[in-house]
Amino acid sequence: MRERGGTMLRRRIRINAEGKELYRFINGLHGEGVACFGQYCRSDVFYGEIYRRDLKKVRRLAEECGVQLKEAEYRSLMKFLSGYRHRYGIALGVAAAFLGCIYFSQTVVTIEIQGNERISSDSVMSALSELDIRRGSRIGDLDLHYCENELEIMMDDIAWAGIRRTGNRIVVQIKETVEKPEMVHERIPCNIVAAKAAQITSVTVHKGMAMHKAGDFVPEGALLISGIKQTDTGRMTLHHAAGEVTGIYEETAVFTEKYRPLRYVPTGRVGKERRLRLFSVDIPLFFGGNDYENCERDSRLKSFRIMGKELPVGIVTDTITETALTDDTLTDEEMDKMLMEKMYLYEKNFLSDCKIIKRDVKREKNEDSMTFIASYKLEGSICRQKEIFIK
After folding, report:
1. CA dist 301 to 109, 126, 187, Å?
2. What is the pTM of this model?
3. Are 278 and 339 in contact (CB under 8 A)?
4. Cβ atoms of 76 and 8 closer than 8 Å
5. What is the pLDDT averaged over residues 60-85?
6. For the residues 45-66, what does the mean pLDDT come to?
7. At what angle do helices 22-31 and 55-65 cross, to 10 degrees?
8. Contact 113, 125 (CB under 8 A)
9. pLDDT score recorded for residue 361
């Protein structure tokens, strides 16, 4: 077993020799101190194994003795490695991989936040960064117990924090504070009045007394649900009126845009810049820069992955579009498009709780601007609480 293991590690040559001075050759091997293994003679042919380091010496003896020498090398690890002895790129790659393993084993590669619902991961990461816990930090320099206590102090919404290390990954487990329930002043006496003039379509009373029914027209400020009740004995009692009253009402919105607005528009010149992101450090992969006075920049990160795991290394590509300040006159079509976008955003932000029954848009324009006057017929809640003050 020892001899086989040595064959796999050390380079050994299998030889056979034949000739008239064969025994002189054999004596010469012994005299030169050549280590020869498994030697035997058969049919005037000498067989044996030698170390490769003695091959030159054996060749010289064979030439001096006039012996015909044949040789063949066993397959071994050293023979395999010797074939790559001049390929320095492989050696550098192996060394870089080895050093990388050592480096990444002592460096924070990923940070995982667990247990957060109300608190955003970005805010937790920002607080951790102030404690020097970030991608690329040396794990040996971090006092995780100290960071746990500081994180609880820095963020009021965290009731408890635990930070642990698993390999090159930092896991942050947090428990959020319990939010205090919103205090609803349901015991304060109040009425429900009309927030705007409307024709009532439905009335739902949870507490109090309905003063109008569906189909009634009510002006703004009219009493819809009363929080004052009178008992059979004539005694007045005050309550917190509650309910829902919907109605159909009208509303107007005005949108205006100038024909020559000051705005930044693309000039058509577009450039790209790439950077190598190593943890939180960006290394430029370009020379110089752009000469744009004004520009818009769109950045995209493509992270490297190994076995499905995202590494803190990647390529950042910036698409830079040059812009210029202009006051070019807009066409009617462009004005219509811009005003329609404004009207869409208004309806999305302010009328999403209502049902739009009808919309009439009137367009007016002069030398400087164009205006859309939108008249809406809406159906929605018309309730507004109004406290009852007791003298």
Report:
1. 17, 19, 55
2. 0.47
3. no
4. yes
5. 74
6. 87
7. 140
8. yes
9. 94
Q: Above 60 in pLDDT, residue 3?
A: no
Q: How far is CA 348 from CA 189, 196, 342, 354, in A?
A: 34, 21, 10, 10
Q: Which residues of 80-118 are buried (b: 16+ CB within 10 A; e: fewer)?
A: eeeeeeeeeeeeeeeeeeeeeeeeeeebbbebebeebee
The SS3 assignment for 351 reads coil
For the chain, give percent helix, strand, coil, nearest 5: 25, 45, 30
Q: Above 50 in pLDDT, residue 6?
A: no
- 44 closest CA partner among 24, 17, 71, 14: 17
Domains of the chain: 2-81 (3.30.70.260), 105-176 (3.10.20.310), 192-247 (no CATH), 263-326 (no CATH)
Judged against a pLDDT cut of 90, whether residue 285 lies above it is answered with no
Question: Cα angle vertex 129, ends 124, 135, to 5°?
Answer: 105
Q: Are 19 and 67 in contact (CB under 8 A)?
A: yes
Q: For position 8, what pLDDT does the model report?
A: 47
